[in-house]
Structure to design on (264 residues):
């Protein structure tokens, strides 16, 4: 199977089975999404969504948030991971929005990356979700799923994976493909034990094909020590990376309802 054929199959499958995939962070405007994504670093969307209503009620705009002190804002964030850093980032972000962007969230990756607490992945999330720009945010889920399926080849960094994905995915689908891959990674192609039996991408998945080949070696013939040794061999996982930028996490599988079609 060619790379083009693999991409075609994957994109068609997701379009049919998860057409409405979207971020599960709850927000009403770009400012709220930016706050939520910053808070979601090393934290689940469930926890963020429980925390942000009180924050948005107390600080409904960048102008109001910019006036907050550390001691005033911290109690609202203390249940989130890394609350000290995130409290400083949010106040710094709000001040920069007010001073340089008239209280508006800029919608270019370059401008967003100048804000405290915002890296390339977060900037890609904001621009793709709010403005549907063809930007691919690559977190650990996207990185893992793309490598397992075979959408990326020998990508050692998130940026390398991002470039390969953008090169091969039609521009009009890039903003949605991020959600497809990240949700698939959270609920189906999970890190430690992927749910291959529930996955409709098996026909084109390199990881699954490798697993099938290894399974054939589990029952060695009598007196075949090589077969016994092969049965103990673990599958080679894609390269593992550490993401330093904030990354959202989701724990609500109801919004990612995949329907798998089987032949009778």
């Amino acid at each position: 199977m060619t790379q083009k054929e693999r991409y075609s199959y994957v994109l068609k499958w997701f379009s049919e089975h998860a057409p409405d995939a979207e971020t599960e962070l709850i927000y009403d405007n770009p400012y709220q999404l930016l706050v939520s994504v910053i808070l979601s670093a090393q934290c689940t969307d469930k926890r963020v969504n429980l925390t942000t209503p009180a924050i948005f009620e107390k600080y409904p705009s960048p102008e109001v948030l910019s006036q907050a002190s550390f001691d005033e804002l911290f109690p609202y964030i203390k249940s989130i991971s890394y609350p000290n850093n995130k409290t400083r980032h949010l106040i710094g972000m709000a001040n920069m929005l007010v001073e340089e962007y008239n209280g508006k969230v800029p919608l270019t990756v370059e401008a967003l990356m100048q804000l405290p607490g915002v890296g390339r992945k977060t900037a890609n999330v904001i621009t793709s979700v709010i403005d549907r720009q063809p930007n691919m945010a690559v977190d650990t889920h996207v990185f893992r799923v793309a490598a397992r399926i075979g959408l990326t080849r020998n990508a050692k960094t998130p940026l390398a994976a991002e470039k390969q994905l953008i090169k091969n995915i039609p521009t009009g689908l890039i903003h949605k493909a991020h959600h497809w891959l990240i949700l698939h990674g959270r609920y189906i192609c999970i890190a430690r034990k992927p749910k291959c039996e529930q996955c409709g991408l098996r026909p084109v998945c390199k990881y699954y094909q490798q697993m099938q080949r290894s399974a054939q070696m589990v029952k060695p013939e009598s007196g075949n020590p090589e077969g016994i040794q092969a049965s103990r061999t673990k599958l080679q996982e894609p390269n593992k990376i550490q993401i330093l930028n904030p990354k959202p996490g989701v724990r609500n599988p109801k919004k990612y309802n995949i329907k798998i079609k089987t032949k009778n």
Observations:
- The two ends are 25 Å apart (CA to CA).
- The CA atoms of residues 78 and 85 lie 11 Å apart.
